[in-house]
Structure formats: C-alpha cells, structure tokens
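Entry 14. Two folds queued back to back today. First construct below, sequence then structure tokens.
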Amino acid sequence: MIISFDIGGSAIKGGIARSETDIVPLGRRPTPKDDFAAFVETLRDIIAEIDEQPSRIALSIAGVVDPDTQRLTCANIPCIHGRALAADLETELALPVLIANDADCFAMAEAGLGAGRGHRIVFGAILGTGVGGGLVADGRLVNEAGGFAGEWGHGPIIASAAGNPPVAIPAYACGCGQKGCVDTVGGARGLERLHKTVHDLDLASEEIIDQWRRGEKKATRTIDVYVDLVASPLALTINITGATIVPVGGGLSNVAPLLAKLDQAVRTRTLRKFHRPLVVPSECRIEPGLIGAALLGLKADADAS
C-alpha cells in the first residue's frame, strides 16, 4: 500500500493505493506554504490516520524537479521551493518518497486509467490558466527522474500572425522569462490576452466562450485566432513524440466545442493522418494528481520488488 498526495497551493489531498483499480481518496488539509516543519507534520498526520504502514509515498506537485540536483522549483509553496524535497521528506518520514510534476501525474492518470488506455504513447495536455503537459510511453512517465519533457507551453514558437485573415500577434512576455510561448496564448488568460489584442476589449474567458457559442462575431474571430495559434505547436508536439492520443485537462477542456475545433485543426497539421478524434477530453476528471502519483508509486514499488 502506498499513500499518494496532491500538493496544491491551497490544499493537500491524500489517497490510499493498493492497486491500479483500488485508489481511495482521503480528506484534504490546508497547505502550510511558509513553514516546512508544519508541511511535514501535515503529511505525517495524514499518514498516521491509516492503520497500515505504507511502503512509500508519492507526491504530485505544481513544480519541477531538476534531474541533476533533484531540487524542486515550486514558486507557490515557498517552504519547499529549492529543496531536495524527496531526500528531505525521506529523512523526516522514514519512507521512500517519489515526487512528480502535476501535469506529469495527469498524463500518467490518463494513460493508465483514462482516455489514453490502450495507447502506447500518450501526451497529456493542460489548457487551464496556462499551458502544460506530460508524456507517457509504454506505461512509463518520461520524466520519472524529473525534468521538463512535455512542457510544450514554453519556448518562443508562437506565430507572429494568425487567423483568417491574419492578425499580427505580439511576442508576449512569458513567466518563464522568454517571449512568444504557447503559455502566453493557450490558457484562459491567453484567450483573454488575444481578445484584448484583436479587439481592444477586456473580457473574461468565460464570457468570450459564451459569446462565441452564441455566434457573436468578435468572439468568433478571437476563437479562430486562438485555435490557429495553438494547433500548430500541438501538432508539432505530436509529430515529435509520436503520441496517438492527447487527453486534455484544465478549465478549457470543459468546453467541448472548443476542444473539437482544436482537434480538427490539429489533425490537419500532423504528419500522420488520424481519422478519429486525437485531441480529446480527459476522463480522470476527479483528482488526476492523486491517481497519477498513485500509479507512479505503485510502479516504483513493482520495480523495487
């Protein structure tokens, strides 16, 4: 039995996993952001609630482990940022610890128990506030040792013009320090940024989508520009990885017609031609971080045995 945790900026959620088909969520507790001792104690308290001693713990975190130093970059939880967190927690909890990025855990969940079942290569894409992703091949996470594989949201590759007729697209500054990243246009904030650029109007992403669904011309224009911008880098990602399915999570994945429109555009741009949906809604809609971390922990146990 392992315990998996989904570590967010506001809450820590736990779960018990005995097999791929036996993953049970536990409760949630507030995340201590600035006190590492309190952070450890929160995990310890959740572990203590279980009568059985786990063989290891597995954590899904909105951060990235450097594969060379094993140090974690996690800006929204300062008390664990910059730490060799797995080693620190192993010392504190006297258990083996596995840590993975939350988008990687999402991809793992979808490959094992979601829309990616039966596919050898699964690319999990996040279209939420921003853009993220994870890559699973032959049932294994490419980033098992940490790293940035799957981060299609970053890199200066956004087209300088998009839509029909084309409209000029600035190289927006990205939080990663570069300019022109997919992350600057592909998430909800990016959609709002595009609407401002194209129409000089400030509008929430929900309202843009609602107006598009009602056929409003300006929103329709924004969505066309959005799809044109996002489809090409996603198609390139599919060409490079060989993924045969792309489950999508995040808030924008809940907009079925938007995902269908993106899927259609992507399939016209991939080298391999798919005559079925390729970019699809995720199926692990509840706690994919917990599920993905649990699957990674179970595989680690199997490898160790």
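Second construct, same run, same settings:
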Amino acid sequence: MTTTLLRTAGELQARTRTGRRAVVMTMGALHEGHATLIRTARGIAGPDGEVVVTVFVNPLQFGQGEDLDRYPRTLDADLALAEQSGADVVFAPAVDEVYPGGEPQVRITAGPMGERLEGSSRPGHFDGMLTVVAKLLHLTRPDVALYGQKDAQQLALIRRMVRDLNFGVEIVGVPTVREEDGLALSSRNRYLSATERRTALALSGALFAGQDRHAAQEALRARAREVPATRARAEALSAIGESRAAADAHAVATAVPGGPAAVRAAARQVLDEAARLEPPLALDYLALVDPSDFTEIGDDFTGDAVLAVAARVGATRLIDNVPLTFTSFGAAS
C-alpha cells in the first residue's frame, strides 16, 4: 500500500470515496500506540474503505509555558509508520489551512467537564482540543474517528461534543498501548533521561497497584455473593482456610480499607515513594472518577470508573489511566 500525503482540505475532498472513511487524529511523532489506532481503523474501514491519518500540531491546545515549539515534528517518519500500518492518506495541513483567518474567534467550549483534572491543570486546553477536533471532523468528513483511551478525559469530551452537537460520526476508543516496562506510549517519552524514565514508571506502577487492590476487593465481593448468608457461609470459609474472624465475607468485602478509598490509597503509596526518588516525581493529580463527567466517585459507587494520574518528571509532564468497574455487594456475577 502506498500512502498519499495531502496538505489541503480541497485535495482530500477531491478524492473519490468508496466504503467507510475512518480517521485517526494525531499531532505527529507517531509511535506504536498510533500504529495500533491506524491498524484498528484499517480493520473498521475494511479493504474497500479508506483510512485517513491527520498530522497537525494544534497551537490552540498548548498553554503558556507548554512545549508547542519543543513538540517533535517528524513527518517523514510519520508517513512511513502510517503506510506500514495501513493508512491510505496522511493529511498534514499547515496552520493557516486549519485556521485560515488566524486564531478562531468562535470556539468549542468544553464546559464543566473540561475544567476538571487536565482542564484545571491546563486552562483552555480542552477548548482548543475540541475546536480542532470539530474542525478536522468537518474537513475530513469521516464515518468513524478513533482516539486512544490513554487520553481518557479527551475521549470523553469528544464523545460528549459529538452527542451534544449532533455530529454524524461514530467515535471509537482504543485501549492504551504500553511499553514493555509498563510506561504508556507517548510522544513525550523521548524527552525522558534514563533516570527520569525510572521515576516515570511510578505512574503506571501506581495505577497497577490500584488496579490490583481493586481486583482483590472484587474477588472478595464475588466470594461473598457465592456463599449463602447462613451458618454454611462460616463453615465454607473455614473449610478453605479462612479464620473464624473473617467468616462473615460481607464484612470482609466491605471493611476499610476497601472500595474506592483503598484503590486511591494503594496508588498514592507508590506515588509518595516516587516523590522521594532522584529525580523526584511531582504529582499533579491522582483521581478516581466517573467517566461520564470526570467527577470523583464516592465509596458507595458502582459501575465503570477511571483511575487517572498526571505528574511531572523533570520538565516532562505525563498522564496515564486505567479503567475499573465497581460492583455492588448484592450484584450478580
């Protein structure tokens, strides 16, 4: 497959379309995470469809003091990776192609969800992100657009914008791709020195610690659901080696530390230890949130949640997250 490089919306719109068009939006500096998005898009579009990869470093979503000028531009390498991964087109417009009148006076506003977590740390970031996503959706006119779940808040806001403003496009989230040591793939990883990278592993380490604590808690809940709430419960638990003090599985499953509080505590312990390393990890936030609005969940929460973290190591700011699902004690397996 030969991938075509296009620079203008007119060139893209002049292409004859057959089948579904799937779009993967990037800011370039492509890596295996982007390759996974492109391969997934290829599978969705099918052999008769078209995969378009956008490469555009959007100035609107970089705040004062952030790394717009430092952000890597590697178009030749991006084109090669896109081609290897199955893209038909790389659409790499100039800034004046996307914003022909200069910075737009009319923009998309992210609303309350856009002011939390990343939005609080990076004011205006999500307004800029949604504005360029809306622009690129109009310019590329896809049937489906794919985004990585590593940027969970971004994905949630794009889904909300598409729903609220009646965009006729399907939004697909693709699971986070990680390096062998667990670090989530990011274009910013290349900024890390060897010692900074060792510290940065605390982000994924914290998430995995929270995930493990959650899995253990859910296993206790599942056991409690399966054992009848009678004398047979105590006998059954004793038979598998549980102490009589732990015979009431309901108490075990709901005791502190348990639930969301225990997940946060397990993750924070890893981050606190990383803050004492050299170089230290400077935590921005650790949050356990409802993915529908990115507000913190309570201890009685049931349903899907996202455990998210952001921190700086040296001059590099990194984010990561894992999805979790909390069940109620009485729910069926």
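Quick look at the second one. Residues 25 and 37 are 9 Å apart (CA to CA). Confidence is low (pLDDT under 50) at residues 244-257.
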